[in-house]
Amino acid sequence: MVTPTRKKDRIDALAASSAEPDAGVSLAASAWRTLRRSPVFLTGAVIIGLFVLISLLAPWLAPQDPSDPMLIDQVVKARNEIPQPQDGHPLGGDLQGRDFFSRVLVGSQQTLIVGVLATLIGLAGGLTLGTLAGAFGGWVDSVVMRLVDVMLSLPSLLLAFSISALFARPNQYTVIVAVAVVQIPVFARLLRGSMLAQRHSDHVLAATALGVKPGAIVFRHMLPNSLGPVIVQSTLVLATAIIDAAALSFLGLGNPDDRIPEWGQMLGDVQNVFDTHPHLAAWPAGCIIVVALGFTLMGETLREALDPKSRR
Amino acid sequence: MAHSRTARRRWTAAIGLTGVAALALSACAQSDRGDESGSGKTGGTLTFGAAGAPKLFDPFYATDGETFRVARQMFEGLVGFKPGTADVEPALAEKWDHSTDGKTWTFTLKENVKFHDGTAFNAEAVCANFDRWYNQKGVAQSEAVSQYWLDNFGGFADTPDKPSLFKSCAAKDAKTAVVELTTSTSQFPSLLAFPSFSMSSPEALKKYDADNVVAAGDAFTYPAYANEHPTGTGPFKFGKFDKANNVVEIVRNDDYHGTKAKLDKVVFKIIPDETARKQALKAGDIDGYDLPNAADWAGLKSDGFDVKVRPPFNVLYLGINQLNNPKLQDLKVRQALQYAINREQLVKSQLPEGAAVATQFMPPAVDGYDKSLKAVPYDLDKAKALLAEAGASDLTLKFYWPTEVTRPYMPSPKDLYGAIAGDLQKAGIKIETTSKPWNGGYLTDVDNGAPDLFLLGWTGDNGTAHNWVGTFFGRTDNRFNTGKSPWGKPLADALAAANAEPDAAKRTKQYEELNKKLMEEYLPAIAISHSPPAIVFKKEIQGVTPSPLTDEKFGSASKG
Amino acid sequence: MLRYTIRRLIQLVGVVLVLSLLLFAWLRALPGGPVSALLGERATPESREALTRQLGLDQPIVTQYFKFLGRALSGDFGTSTGVQPGDSAMEIFLQRFPATIELSFLAIVIAIAFGIPLGYMAAKRRGSWFDNLSVGGSLIGVAVPVFFLAYVLKDSLSSVLGLPTEGRQDAIDATRVTGFFVFDGVITQEWDAAWNAIEHLILPAIALSTIPFAVVFRITRAAVLDVLDEDYVRTAESKGLTAPTIRQRHVLRNAMLPVVTTIGLQTGALLAGAVLTEKVFSLPGVGQALAIGFERRDYPVLLLLIIMATIVYVVVNLLVDLSYAFIDPRIRTR
Known about the structure:
Largest sheet of chain B: 7 strands, mixed
Structural class of chain A: mainly alpha
Radius of gyration of chain A: 22 Å
Strand content of chain B: 15-25%
Shape of chain A: elongated
Radius of gyration of chain B: 23 Å
Number of helices of chain B: 17
Distance between the termini of chain A: 14 Å
Helix content of chain A: 55-70%
Distance between the termini of chain B: 52 Å
Number of strands of chain A: 0
Oligomer: heterotrimer
Shape of chain B: globular
Number of helices of chain A: 12
Strand content of chain A: under 5%
Strand order of the largest sheet of chain B: 10-11-12-1-13-21-14
């Protein structure tokens, strides 16, 4: 067995892990048994759990309004002074005199939204293309997969940069679209592979024989069995989306309006003060690293657990 | 279109040059600057960190600050700016005189001046240059190419429908050139100090096909003269542009007619990233760079660097557009906005050391500045009262601010917008925010009158008041749409009359009165601040005088 | 083999044509387009219209595209409006490509030099603290935004190591032959110039190498683990062969296959990473041109550079596939 190295092969290998629909239940069950005992998976799960919890509760947890420049009188650009940590402001203020602690907390919310929306859009686009290709096969398959291969033949981060640059006026939605579109081909190939593998399986053949409509077969029988690989890929995409969004901000392709904080933007926007106010970069960067790591840990362990080969 | 030609020119230096100083002018290094040459050592190389690559080296076609910075070391004009000021002083012309109607100008030229290619500079060369500019053909007439000419002189020889300020040039004798204008303007002769109008060797212009601008695909390509053979009279000659290493080199002109440069070479190293420039200076890789971030000044000073703060020569204003919201045609509402903005605080927290609250739309160094005007203080209650009086307590305004740009008067638009919007909201004004890239829709929207409020400013080209208030309010269909108010037309007429006044003292008086009216009776916008940009060098670099026009000459500089 | 190569190359041409058409159409559809880029905020309706005519932008988009294709076939992809206005996009690419190749090459060398030995050691000691630590490290490495790491390196290491933080070379008199500064320094025997250029590459190359390093490490580890399980290794062990012999003859040789291909496939990550790294270190390569191009919306340059990036990426992938088949005879028989 050779470890898959190409993007395509990797995706196909992942798709193949859903290829045993009849063993689906036992596979999921045994995967869950493995994961429950895996300290790596649990670490990831705890990180992500906390992250989701904080982002949901952020508006109540944050001591201040993150968009109110309440400490502006302590900002003196000429002397490079920004508000120091003080009562009610444990991390001080940012360059505009807004409470930095509240911004970091509330930043989790927008970050989660960017990650989740990017994944959902990628998934929805991939689902459409993958279902078309996987369910119908034939020339539809060829056309769709050629298109997917064209997209996969571009470096994904570079593609995200290019898509953003094509928008005349960047905002929070263009960022999401840019990091989402590059995921569409990945999900498409994943779902198509998974469905191809199931097309000749007993339960699909049985459903077809019973006269179940093709659409119903896809949604009731094929998709649920593809869920495993999709979840794995989604966790990995969540990590990438957050990091990619930061890179977009860094290149000036991100959302220029920063009243509602987002970690990637907070990090990308302070590039000129990395050396003089490192904490302004370190906090969002640290948060991004921890959360991305959390998603990666979950994704990788999930992948291993679902991969029959690695469960020896 | 909604603004004067000069108005548009001011913006152009910003095209694609975020963080780069605006304009700057003239390439003259004076021969009689003995006091500055002082004790500096001869020889050595000065390495200067530039924020971007010069577009080309022929200043006539240039629009970008990086080209001007290099060009003003190699070229000189008939007149120049006195170091450290916006005052005109002799350069290649020793003296000049004009007829009483202000239309005929006689320049007496300096003698024994040679271009870098060894040909002589004389009155014929002067007229050859004027004729070259006036006779641009085809795509070279495009605004994207001969921008400075179009903005300052107007049309060309073969565009009779587009009048030109320039009429003719005649060489009376070798050292006397007579320039005829079609009308009188306060801008002449100081506009000749722009680097765009510096003197090139007519021989070299011809030899290297200087006027052969070609439209290629989506842009223009320039001839050999502009890329490899710029030939002026300045203290430095063109060396090379090593594009692979992103380095421009100019070398000492040993046949210079004035005090020769001390440095053997000036190297412009292109470092687009702001923090990278700072680190390169600290690591000793470069000897200086332009426009250090105001937040870094203190740190650089304490590290032993020489932060030279230029005299503030710009203005930041909050533009008010009267076109869409009739409430904004009410003086009380505009005054309320002025009271509502805590400009004192804004200047203190957001702007560099030495920045000041503006009392009018031009800085003190400009002729016609009214010293009697005082800054209106922050007064939230008064703002609310005025709004109530005008029946505008539930005012909602569309506030535009630009992204992807920093200007010397506007170091961080996002932060400035944040502070101003916060103040206005405190006064009960609702804000609808739009942000757009500076070159990607912001300026177009502002010109098309889309916003109610917008952030903009100006860096002066010269010390004439027309360059400031004339640019802003000289037409009624300007960015503020002052024509919507009854005073818009009289204001524009008065500004035009002042500009055409040949007598300097009378002119100054007229501008002072206009400034007073602008602030007390018209208030077409809120003047916010003047902020000084800086340039930083290592301690061992001497002899560079910071200029309000970013017109720093390296001819007088020395290292060690 | 030949047929396969030709088919892939034809596909590449198709991809490039589709991509260029898409990009071209989108760019033309943007409000303003090249005219705005050139005139900027100064555009008046009159000047805008005049320039539109001068540049032939008033013609139908299909006509424009074919004109563009015609020019493109002769190497003319348009003129830069922001990165280096007036220069042809191709010129900019050719001038800057060597810098990016040098940088990527050094980054890959670093990734291999550390990734393979660490991966091998981690696999041999599977489950040990060393294994866990290095696996954890490689996961964190992927989670750190590249540009943030680059800044951290620049701020922390440059003064300690005395390394330059911007540019390709100091402004020294160096002879330019190929555009590869290190190589030029070597062939002209200007050792100072070569060393100076290497010094400028070290920090950016470290920053750029993190992701390839993490990938090479993990692939090596996984491949070695796979191979260690194979019968032939167990046989070799039971035969009583010495550890170094097993390592060289059986484990490494077989594990190298996926590793070699992975290295080639990192080109994509390197190209995107170069945009960020070259921006942080003001290194005048293709990545910096892209970064400036994005910032200033220099569409002719972006169009060419994105197409070139695609070509490089696809060609490297093709080469990897070919070499893969060459190294592993099992594939050829497929």
